[in-house]
Amino acid sequence: MAAQLKSASQSRSRLDRLRLFLSHHRADAILVSHLPNIHYLCGFTGSSALLLIEGSRGTLFTDSRYTFQARKEVSGVRVQITKTGLIAAASEALRSGRKGRRTAVAYSPFQLTVGQMDALHAGSGKHVRWVKAPNAVESLRAIKDAGELTAMKDAAELISNVFGSILPLIRPGVSELMLSGAIEFAMKELGATGPSFETIVASGPRSAWAHARPSSKPLRKNELVVLDQGAILRGYCSDMTRTVFLGRSSPRVRRMYAAVLEAQQAAKDAIRPGVTAGSVDAAARRVLKGYGLASKFTHSTGHGLGLEVHEMPRLGRGEATILQQGMVLTVEPGVYVEGFGGIRIEDDIVVTSKGAQDLTSASREFLEL
Amino acid sequence: MAAQLKSASQSRSRLDRLRLFLSHHRADAILVSHLPNIHYLCGFTGSSALLLIEGSRGTLFTDSRYTFQARKEVSGVRVQITKTGLIAAASEALRSGRKGRRTAVAYSPFQLTVGQMDALHAGSGKHVRWVKAPNAVESLRAIKDAGELTAMKDAAELISNVFGSILPLIRPGVSELMLSGAIEFAMKELGATGPSFETIVASGPRSAWAHARPSSKPLRKNELVVLDQGAILRGYCSDMTRTVFLGRSSPRVRRMYAAVLEAQQAAKDAIRPGVTAGSVDAAARRVLKGYGLASKFTHSTGHGLGLEVHEMPRLGRGEATILQQGMVLTVEPGVYVEGFGGIRIEDDIVVTSKGAQDLTSASREFLEL
């Protein structure tokens, strides 16, 4: 994949914002272990790395499999290829050159395991005071810059086009797996690096499983089909769900669909800078309650989207996070009735000064195929 | 995906072996957090779960998205749907019904984060003494039973067939991404649930990146092309690499290929029950040293394979793990020359009483296309 950093200056600006965060939290350094955070800060996309940012300098630790790739992708920090393991190399760097001064090193307690932390304690010794700082990089990532928004708009457009192109394939007889295969192939045909998560195609009673994996089950007439798909383009994810019906649907199904679509629109209408994530979730729930379907909506209304398919913030019940301009979110209420079927409609939006702006363009009309 | 447990009795047998492990380690219970371990022990394939095994009973904690799926997949343990979060629910279970007795609960320090452990400590209080027990379930999983071996043989056969079917597509002009898309589509056509990792197609100088991701770069005449692909079938992974040349190769390339193939065969020949993983790695390195290519072999010789694409044991330098009958391993030496290209040949094998038995059947002859 091409590196996402257009220039060393972009990497510098992200690192500078991180250093500002550190100075506010009275930390001298931060050890970043989560790979998408490392990708964001210095451009490296390999699968094995640690990034240590101390004062004005940064070091990416990776192993010899990634020597050439790191040289090509990384900017703003130096690269150290380690043979002793990432944790040992980072510990060594923290131990050396301290001159007796104790360093306060921030880390995310949800991104280092107990075992890794044990090894870091043992390796860095008394030279380091470890400071828990969850979401340091995630909070920067939540607000997208112009280049990121362009990539995400393109990723959302791509998945809308994929859906349009595979519509003729949604017919009785084709298996969920083959359909998901065709969707993922179409993504690559249109230039995506791949799916941003395992594509969901769930038909009939299986559509009531909010996170069903595609099976060899063939689609049948008079079934609901939930299609949840997303593509990675230039490193950024899209995530879109549409639900269709094979044949002529019953009034019950059509009423369910109308309820979900209305709930989605209510959530979108509630989005603007300054409101809480929880209030957006509540707006969707209020509509479904009016239809007597509140108990069938078994997940949260949406989530942040970016380098990862699930990012900050979460549009969940009671979430206090304040929405800000430049956040990219999914809006995806759904209802699930065991033994009957499920309906979910999901779009990607960006929070602008005026409210939610749709990135996904595929029609939300109820399709009876 | 269909659950992998053929019957409740299979789940019981795995749980019983785990309980034996616990009694040897003087633990009363184990908290399992790694999803493939949970899948192995009780059949659940959802993306959010904790499994607590205490004495004769087990509880799977998951959330409301998975109510129906858990009911269908899980055997051998009871299911508890939680609204308060997995960690909170597990803590509550550990706190209640203890009658003052302190429980020793095993966990893997590399599979719980510092933050999760903090929450478990706070939630379970003085009722629990936490015992570090890395690889408790992984060591069971390393030895495959007959049903698992059948699935893995089929998964390896499937990927061999995929490679055969896409051979005509490997030609100048097609992009790495399109080729990887075609490979993954062919997997699903042949019945796989999907790729077991992001398919690698790396051509020309990019073939020297051992873990390159496919790019939009078109294949060109006179280039090496590394194709590393694996499929998931009935829950189990395959993993196979072939390297081909577009056109007529130079003596240097043919010599490199011969060296890698000879190294792979030497590693396979070294495999039998009772030898160390490190001795297999050494056998491959010895051959490459003879060709003056030792420094170009920048990763380990192979790894365990099963429900995950990387499992125990690792066939790495100096690894002391003793190979046992029923282990399934990849054997995949490679050489990588920056600016020139790379060659890797990888097969899946099972350790039998007689030695390594190939699961992958695709030809290892050097193909000039």
Task: Give a description of the structure.
- Two copies of one chain form a homodimer.
- Chain A is of the alpha+beta class.
- The first copy, chain A, has two domains: 8-140, Creatinase/prolidase N-terminal domain (Creatine Amidinohydrolase, Chain A, domain 1); 146-368, Alpha-Beta Complex (Creatine Amidinohydrolase).
- Chain A has helices at 8-24, 35-42, 67-73, 86-95, 114-124, 136-141, 146-166, 176-189, 251-270, 277-290; strands at residues 29-32, 49-54, 57-62, 78-81, 103-107, 128-132, 194-195, 200-203, 224-229, 231-233, 236-237, 240-245, 302-304, 311-315, 328-331, 334-337, 341-344, 347-352, 355-358, 367-368.
- In chain A, the strands form six sheets. In chain A, strands 4-3-2-1-5-6 form a six-stranded mixed β-sheet, with helices on both faces.
- In chain A, helix 4 runs parallel beside helix 5.
- The longest helix of chain A has 21 residues, at 146-166.
- The two termini of chain A are 37 Å apart.
- The mean pLDDT of chain A is 94.
- At the A-B interface, helix 3, helix 5 and helix 8 of A face helix 3, helix 5 and helix 8 of B.
